[in-house]
Amino acid sequence: MNTSEQQHFDLLYQQHLTNLTLQGMRPATIDAYSRAVRRISAFFDCPPDTLTKADLKNYFAQLIQTHSWSTIKLDRNGLQFFYKHTLDRQWEWLNIVKPPQVKHIPDILTPQQVGLMISHTRALRYQVFFLVLYSMGLRLSEALDLTVNDIDSHTMQVHIREGKGGKDRLLPLPKRTLSALRCYWSTHRHPQLLFPSIGKNTQVPMDKGSVQKALKKVIVELRINKNISPHSLRHCFATHLLEQGIDLRSLQILLGHHSLNTTAKYTQLTPLKQKDNVTALNKLTNKLAIQWEVS
Question: Residues 74, 78, 84, CA angle at the centre, nearest 5°?
Fold first, then answer.
């Protein structure tokens, strides 16, 4: 872009940031939606308000070849917001940019495998962190952001602040988890963070990447042939609680789901439910009076 085009882009970009803030978007959304505008402007080397429909279609066709559908979806949403609120335009055709509808069933560890995984994790900080993820069903970012003040040992509750969708929730704190947290905190005594990054006077939590690598390493060492990530421990938490008889509504509250339908997906992961299904199917087919079968 020449100087004039760059100045024009800077003006539009600042308006975009202002509109995102006025709409009450969360920091992560502001970052993603602003990056979408920067990316497409860099791709064409011009301000995005000069682009045609053909340009935009070509851009997304190229993006599909190099980026994940999650990135494409964020860019689509970010540009739709930009055109609607900053340029006062509506590009209906962007609705055709849709990811394929694929619903995967996540891999689940058994309670025994969870215990093995935590036991064989070498560093204490990761051992305790994995226990926290599993025993309270937390998302990775929720656990990393935990502070000393979030733990109430008198009421045995944990205050999860600004979870997904900016929602707070209170969770029961298992006694074993509290003991583990106290043990680990005594090794660093950070005045605020429960899981600070390594180093003196650090004010940021552990790196997400290091947590993911630590888990992947122990899963490989244990020769568990499943696709397991830190988020898998949240799935395990939900599935194992259902196996113990917790009702869906209570589980929905613990997980912080907006819709009960989201929570209900875990019913298909429990061996007990699968066993019930097999029993029901056998009863159904055994009642059939089939003449050609040999007894």
Answer: 145
Helices and strands (H and E) in the chain: how many? 13, 3
With residue 65 as reference, give the H or E element that holds it.
Answer: helix 53-66
**Phi, psi (5° rounding) for residue 169?**
-155, 155
Long-range pairs for 2-8: beta carbons < 8 A, 24 or more residues apart: 5/46, 5/47, 8/47
114: nearest Cα among 264, 248, 224: 224
Point out the residues that are catalytic. 139, 164, 231, 234, 257, 266
Cβ-in-10-Å burial (0-12, 13-18, 19+) of 169 comes to middle
Torsion of Cα atoms, 42 then 45 then 51 then 55, to 10°:
-70
Kindly report the pTM of this predicted structure: 0.68
pLDDT tens digits for range 65-95: 888 888 888 898 999 899 999 998 876 666 6
| CA–CA separation, 77 and 32 (whole Å) | 9
Give the separation between CA 154 and CA 156, rounded to whole angstroms: 5
Q: Which of 294, 288, 140, 142 is nearest to 212 (CA)?
A: 140
Q: pLDDT under 70 in the chain at which residues?
A: 91-96, 99-102, 165, 200-201, 268, 271-295
Cα 175 from Cα 181, distance rounded (Å): 10
Do 118 and 180 touch, CB atoms closer than 8 A? Answer: no
Domains of the chain: 3-96 (1.10.150), 111-277 (1.10.443.10)
